[in-house]
Amino acid sequence: MSKRGENRGDDKPARALRGRAGRMKNGRGSGRASAGTVRLWGHHAVEAALRNPDRRHRKLWATREAVEALDGELPSDFPVEWAQAADLARLVARDAPHQGLVLECEPLDDLFLADVLDGDPARPVVVLDQVTDPHNVGAIMRSAAAFNACAIVTQDRHAPPESGTLAKSASGALEILPWVRVVNLARALEEIAEAGYWRIGLDGEAETTLAEALPAGPVALVLGAEGDGMRRNITQHCDATARLPISDAMESLNVSNAAAIALYAAETR
């Protein structure tokens, strides 16, 4: 299994683009992503992907106005096809806010959990148990990157794949936050514990508040799907459960909002 950061065959880091392209056409794109690729859209998601040296890029469709709004330049041989906004809409999901930019690229390489557990112990790990909505996972990535988390951990199954919807919600965080996908989440939690992390599962029914449960040392924040919460086996692999002290007037928070609050609490303890 390869790792992000290894040589991907590209000598030049991809940078964002302003005003020039190597190959320009007036026609429309194919309307389908090539096999083994993902299609990203939106200003922040595409610009971050273009800047990411770990990405292999295939092609960029763009309006001239959107390209002018990007920061920096791209190598002159980068494949770009000028398009109208209506044509770009045919390349992405229905009503997706492409903002004049659609990038076809290869998925990021897989990471091993051990790769992210030997870094700064002050940076939390975020573990998601069967959170399947790409908007929620993308929003959690954005908060995790903002509050200095070292990684997000999900299962291979019961988690959204890398996609334009997730990347748009992550607003660039997909390119900078390590994302570890594991086969067995309980086993991953055991590995996290062996690395010295205190595992706290967010549970609205817990007696202890998160502020009371947070340790001084390394912490892993575990969040379950909305409605069902964490599965029993995952709860049993946590060292403690804790709740956010929200008003009785509200039953619960969206999982992405809960993650943002928990990350803030971990960053400011």
Automatic annotation (TrEMBL):
Decide whether keyword Methyltransferase is in the record: yes
Q: Name one GO cellular component term.
A: cytosol
**Where are the compositionally biased (Basic and acidic residues) regions?**
1-14
GO molecular function terms listed in the Swiss-Prot or TrEMBL record: RNA binding; RNA methyltransferase activity
* Signal found in the keyword field: no
Residues forming the RNA 2-O ribose methyltransferase substrate binding domain are 39-111
Name the GO terms of the biological process aspect: methylation; RNA processing
Q: Where is this region: Disordered?
A: 1-35
Q: Which SMART domains has this protein been placed in?
A: SpoU_sub_bind
Q: What protein name does the entry list?
A: RNA 2-O ribose methyltransferase substrate binding domain-containing protein
Question: What taxonomic ancestry is recorded?
Answer: Bacteria, Pseudomonadati, Pseudomonadota, Alphaproteobacteria, Sphingomonadales
